[in-house]
Amino acid sequence: MFQAKADVISKKEISPGVFSITLISPEISRNAKPGQFVHVLCGVQNDKFLLRRPFSIHRVVPGRAFEILFQVVGSGTKELSKVKIHDALDVIGPLGTSFTYSPDIKSALLLAGGLGVAPLLFLAEELTENHVMFYAMLGAQTKTKLLRYIDFKRLAKKTFAATEDGSFGHEGTVVALLNRTVHRLRPQVIYAVGPGKMLQKVAETADDFGIDCQVSIEAKMACGVGACLGCTCLTRQGFKLTCKDGPIFNARDIMWGESEVEQLSLDGYKYEAAEITDSD
Amino acid sequence: MFQAKADVISKKEISPGVFSITLISPEISRNAKPGQFVHVLCGVQNDKFLLRRPFSIHRVVPGRAFEILFQVVGSGTKELSKVKIHDALDVIGPLGTSFTYSPDIKSALLLAGGLGVAPLLFLAEELTENHVMFYAMLGAQTKTKLLRYIDFKRLAKKTFAATEDGSFGHEGTVVALLNRTVHRLRPQVIYAVGPGKMLQKVAETADDFGIDCQVSIEAKMACGVGACLGCTCLTRQGFKLTCKDGPIFNARDIMWGESEVEQLSLDGYKYEAAEITDSD
Amino acid sequence: MSVNLSVTLAGIKMKNPVMPASGTFGNGREFSEFFDVGRLGAIVAKTVTLKPREGNMPPRVCETTSGMLNSIGLQNEGLGYFLKHDLPYMRKFKIPIIVNIAGNTLEEYAQICRDLRGVEGVSAIELNISCPNIKAGGIAFGASSKLAEQVTAASRYNTDLPLIVKLTPNVYNISKIARAVVSAGADAVSLINTLVGMSIDIKTFKPQLANYTGGLSGPAIKPVAVRMVWEVAQTVDVPIIGIGGIMTAEDAIEFFLAGATAIAVGTANFVNPKAMVEIIEGIERFLSERGFTDVRQLIGKVRV
Amino acid sequence: MSVNLSVTLAGIKMKNPVMPASGTFGNGREFSEFFDVGRLGAIVAKTVTLKPREGNMPPRVCETTSGMLNSIGLQNEGLGYFLKHDLPYMRKFKIPIIVNIAGNTLEEYAQICRDLRGVEGVSAIELNISCPNIKAGGIAFGASSKLAEQVTAASRYNTDLPLIVKLTPNVYNISKIARAVVSAGADAVSLINTLVGMSIDIKTFKPQLANYTGGLSGPAIKPVAVRMVWEVAQTVDVPIIGIGGIMTAEDAIEFFLAGATAIAVGTANFVNPKAMVEIIEGIERFLSERGFTDVRQLIGKVRV
Ligand SMILES: Cc1cc2nc3c(=O)[nH]c(=O)nc-3n(C[C@H](O)[C@H](O)[C@H](O)COP(=O)(O)OP(=O)(O)OC[C@H]3O[C@@H](n4cnc5c(N)ncnc54)[C@H](O)[C@@H]3O)c2cc1C
Ligand SMILES: Cc1cc2nc3c(=O)[nH]c(=O)nc-3n(C[C@H](O)[C@H](O)[C@H](O)COP(=O)(O)OP(=O)(O)OC[C@H]3O[C@@H](n4cnc5c(N)ncnc54)[C@H](O)[C@@H]3O)c2cc1C
Ligand SMILES: Cc1cc2nc3c(=O)[nH]c(=O)nc-3n(C[C@H](O)[C@H](O)[C@H](O)COP(=O)(O)O)c2cc1C
Ligand SMILES: Cc1cc2nc3c(=O)[nH]c(=O)nc-3n(C[C@H](O)[C@H](O)[C@H](O)COP(=O)(O)O)c2cc1C
Ligand code: FES
Ligand code: FES
After folding, report:
1. Which one-letter DSSP state was computed for residue C294?
2. Residue C4 DSSP one-character state
3. Contact (Cβ atoms closer than 8 angstroms) between residue D46 and residue D100
4. How confident is the model at residue B44 (pLDDT cuts 50, 70, 90)?
């Protein structure tokens, strides 16, 4: 765990509203493992009072810099999207647990919904380095929201894409794609990152097929370091801290369907007016 | 009273920490009178929650634009100093009362302490236009803090300067200078703008010599338009609203030495440790 | 799709649920230069007392983080002046007029209620009960369920107008106070008034307000206000006017969901004199974007 | 010029007046990776209860304008675990340790006090009295001067350690509560704990916290905290630990002027883990720039 004033050395809007920022920090990049995250003070001057925001480590330039990939969804990410090259961001990291695999792992499946590619690209690079064969499966609503497809294609044995509107790859959700293909791919382990609802379904499929599954869980965080007990995640072993015992959990341990998962899934906001009846 | 989104067409740091900004607003510039002020939402995006800040109208480009002159003293002025050309500022104005003079006025004295030049330059231009003879007397701590000297010199019959450290013009305060010269200049009216303590002394001198004196009073404001009753000034006629019944008051009406004047005078912050004794 | 914004609050028909919070809008005069005040759902007058009040010494306002403190001290010209000069002016807006009143004693509230009987153009009375009861050792009427009940009953007895009681948040159990005023005849409650706060200038070592302490308002207090509106909505059946830190339509919607039938905007008027108009438009937009047809579909609909 | 930052608070000698607010610093472990925790004036443990507590369902935190809400629900492993695992760790910092405790009943507070008797390294006990008394219908101990007095007396009877009572701000008359706890034997008071608030997500219509309501902390509440510290400083003679929205040395100084002998930093630790160290350095700088030699020269020196 380090607190660094990390210089921004590159910033790109890789898709509308989705940015990648590369930050210099020898300590963080040297120690980072796939699945871990950084806790970022968004904006250069924080006189607005904003709690830090957590972002997965997306990639590292070993020993020198690391990259985050994020979507603008609210005030913090909006501020973050405004930083300029040479600005210094106050960052804490690397934080939390990482994806794990046994030394003799033969095949893996990396499954991302939307921004879920963020930690998985780092994992993909590490697996490649360690000569572990893996598939990648990326899902998005539409083609322009499909992120890092080329990068995964370069690294993975095979990269599948699913778009809900069919504008690229398979038509439908990435979960449907998984369910259609998993019996053929037969990965030893699935690493899944994405909205809570998606993770829950992936976990069910993995369970049905007896495949190990590791997921990255999101929770609102205050401290990010395990001190405030604010980011609890309900597991079969009781409350765990998402920032310290996670964010990477064994999917079997998660008590799915509990409030935080529903609330925080980034696509969970499509609100149905029908549910609310006029009582006046 | 207008609310305008006024484009910044010029911005200069005329002295360290002192900025002038020119804003386009036909309505405000057309209606502005010397002594009136504008109430400015400082910064382009006001998501920080900042109340508006009042600034005197410093000059007008008739029917088109107006200028403000301000010193960075806190969060609002700091934000304001960061605006860029072509930014649009949310401004309300013109507000409050203005300096007055009878049609047959023969001679006036404009007396400014520090930033007090802000409304007085506008007045100087108007007096010049109306062929009213006037003197100007500008005071500051030191030469670099003496503002708009050349401009007054161009317009006034004679312009006096006083610096506390003697680095330019007379050595000492502008009040001392006034007291030494007033019997010779014999103005019909004194227009004085500056810190509360200074205004009080000027008012005493004016009173001693039977000269009319108009002053610009400062008070913390919320609404700026007379609705919140937050900016009261204690006068011989009871509480008056600085934003609506002022900021220009007849010096004789002010109950000097009341809390707000002391508190708000910009140079009143020199704190003497000696006043506080150790009681532990 | 057209959406309905109108609500009925304690019998007052409002074309939309947005009004100013007492004391932050004068009596509409100044703001009428910025927008058509007639577009509001109602207008709420600055607190009127029986006799004129001078108010507190300046400085009376200061800014705090995401909020402000004020200690105006109920400065006003008294009921007589109000009836003669302000009320006739306010009638021109042709929207419901809510007259906010305060007193030092039960009798003063009662007297004002009597004096407002049959006065043209008064749609409702709002009792500001955040002020001290000088006969009860200076404790605020709104800080004790007994005093709150008494002042409501005394007012209720003396008026047939809809009676709104504006609660102070500086209490432990806001529901208890709400229950007390409703049992004494309040037709609606409005909340919250300001939290008591203080700010000290570390350059001068002086309090920022001459009165030392003042009322905290603005976005800083919104979570307290939403909580209290929600708690009171669980407890009493009368409509609620939600107040506290509302700057945008989104803030207003939070209050509707918590249980407010209408909302009042205070401090935001100082930052943006057109805030209320923008809030009305924003509520309309929110409703139609989400497929609602009526603002009342939001009231109390927090999914707990 | 060298300045003295040390203060003595209820007999606890602190090398500077800065400590963490309970519950925002864990027990120091995590923060020790960012700075030398031994530099603090004292360390305050997260609230300990007799039995382990699971805490509330997530989500437990959310951000509000210039503040945050939390509903951790006093999650902790219980006193036994604390004494075995946390306290020994905390002793390594070699600074005074203040153990913050809470209970559901008077007996629980009393029991914890007894269990802490003679335990090495405990410098003081801080009573968190913001929690409900389950035998008194769920009203918080700190919301009633009678309950507050009782819980203080019960604790006082069972410990010889300095006793600090941490007050809840969700009351009308904080001075009354302070008087009650001091009369029952409190050696110091700390204030404020959080204000109760609520926030609703207008996209999902759900409360942001699973527990619906939670405690508001951060800069938003600072004016309320300063006011309460000042009021209490007028009323009781014991030292005060000022808490609430302190982000910078300037904020801390406002609390000293209001009457606090020491201050505790909460939410700021989340924004900047080095906040407390920067505050210590900032206080030192302020004092020497202004020609003071001792932080105690500021205490209660607001010029009213
Ligand atoms: C371990 C971890 C890793 C993450 N990695 C990434 C990443 O690599 N890229 C990325 O774009 N996002 C990532 N997130 C989510 C990211 O933290 C949130 O999008 C961000 O905090 C939103 O901040 P905001 O101020 O813009 O939004 P807010 O204004 O705070 O909220 C906007 C919306 O986003 C939701 N939200 C807020 N905070 C979180 C959160 N912590 N988790 C999930 N949803 C939240 C809110 O419910 C709200 O509806 C990660 C979250 C966690 C917990
Ligand atoms: C009618 C009027 C006209 C003014 N004209 C000018 C002008 O032309 N140029 C200029 O530089 N300043 C002018 N001022 C003062 C200016 O409004 C303040 O300097 C400004 O509001 C400070 O805002 P801030 O956020 O930077 O400071 P804050 O952070 O609010 O405060 C910084 C310091 O400035 C003091 N201050 C804050 N508000 C005021 C205020 N309204 N009046 C006086 N002192 C204040 C505070 O007490 C504090 O010590 C005028 C004030 C008034 C009332
Ligand atoms: C400057 C000012 C003056 C106020 N005067 C009154 C008043 O006279 N009567 C009253 O009932 N409330 C008064 N209030 C309280 C507001 O009506 C409102 O309840 C409070 O400010 C919270 O709302 P806000 O956060 O939107 O400002 C005043 C508030 C402010 C800021
Ligand atoms: C996440 C969180 C957890 C807290 N837990 C406790 C606690 O266990 N015991 C306690 O007495 N106060 C607790 N508090 C209250 C703080 O100690 C402090 O009184 C309050 O947050 C106000 O200070 P601040 O504004 O600096 O945060 C907690 C506050 C927060 C934000
Ligand atoms: S965010 Fe504080 S414990 Fe996880
Ligand atoms: S600032 Fe509101 S009345 Fe003057």
Report:
1. B
2. B
3. yes
4. confident
What tokens appear for D288 in the block? 């020497």
Structure tokens at D96: 């005074």
What tokens does A79 get?
Answer: 């501020």
Element containing residue B119 per DSSP (H, E): helix B117-129
- Whether D267 lines ligand 4, by a CB cut-off of 6 Å, is yes
Q: Using the beta-carbon criterion (under 8 Å), do A276 and C301 form an inter-chain contact? A: yes
Q: Which of B148, B199, B196 is nearest to B178 (CA)?
A: B199
Give the pLDDT confidence score for residue B258 in this predicted structure: 56
Q: How confident is the model at residue A46 (pLDDT cuts 50, 70, 90)?
A: low
User: What average pLDDT values come out for chain D (304 residues) when binned by 10 residues?
Assistant: 92 97 96 97 97 96 97 96 97 98 96 97 97 87 96 98 98 97 98 98 97 97 98 98 98 98 98 97 97 97 96
Give the ipTM of the model, two decimals please: 0.94
- C-alpha to C-alpha distance for C223 and B178, rounded to whole angstroms: 55
| CA of B19 relative to ligand 3 center, distance in Å | 35
Ligand nearest to the CA of B225: 6
Report d(CA D29, CA D45) in Å as an integer.
11
Per-residue pLDDT for B276 more than 90?
no
Looking at the predicted structure, is the pLDDT value of residue A203 above 50? yes
Task: List the 65-104 stretch of A: residues with Cβ below 8 A of C.
Answer: none
> What is the percentage of chain A residues whose pLDDT exceeds 90?
87
pLDDT band at C268 (very low <50, low <70, confident <90, very high): very high
Does residue B48 surpass a pLDDT of 90? no
DSSP SS3 for C10: coil
Tokens (6 digits) for A31: 């120690």
* Proximal ligand: closest to the CA of D61: 4
B221 lines ligand 6 (CB under 6 A): yes
Q: How far is the CA of A219 from the centre of ligand 1 (A)?
A: 8
Pairing of strands B18-24, B65-71: antiparallel
What's domain B2-95's architecture? Beta Barrel (2.40)
Q: Is the peptide bond prior to A34 cis by the omega test (within 30 degrees of 0)?
A: no
Atom number, ligand 2, closest to the C-alpha of residue B119: 8
DSSP 8-state secondary structure symbol assigned to residue D48: B
b/e sequence D91-117, b meaning 16+ C-beta within 10 Å:
eebebbbbbbbbbbbbebbbbbbebbe
Residues of B in contact with A75 (CB under 8 A): 47
Query: Distance between terminal CA atoms of chain C?
Result: 29
Question: How far is the first Cα of chain B from the last one, in angstroms, to the nearest whole number?
Answer: 54
Average pLDDT, chain B: 90
**Domains recognised in chain D with CATH numbers:** 7-56+73-197+216-298 (3.20.20.70)
Name the helix (H) or strand (E) containing A55: strand A53-56
Distance from CA of A273 to the nearest CA of C (A): 6
The structure tokens listed for A85 are: 């090259």
Determine the atom of ligand 4 nearest the C-alpha atom of D70.
1
> Which 8-state DSSP code applies to residue D185?
T
Yes or no: say if C79 and C112 are a contact pair by the CB < 8 Å rule: yes
Token pair of D151 as six digits: 């819980």
* Inter-residue contact A96 to A56 (CB < 8 Å): no
Fill in the DSSP letter of residue A113: E
Fold of the domain spanning A107-270: Rossmann fold (3.40.50)
Q: Rounded mean pLDDT of chain D?
A: 97
Q: What share of chain D is helix, strand, coil (3-state, %, to 5)?
A: 35, 20, 45
Other C-beta atoms lying within 10 Å of the C-beta of residue C35 = 16
Suggest the residue from B47, B50, B84 to mutate for an interface test with chain A (most A CBs closer than 10 A): B47
Could you tell me the residue ranges of all domains in chain B? 2-95, 107-270
* Phi, psi of A77, rounded to the nearest 5 degrees: -70, -30
Angle formed at CA D192 by CA D275 and CA C189, multiple of 5 degrees: 125
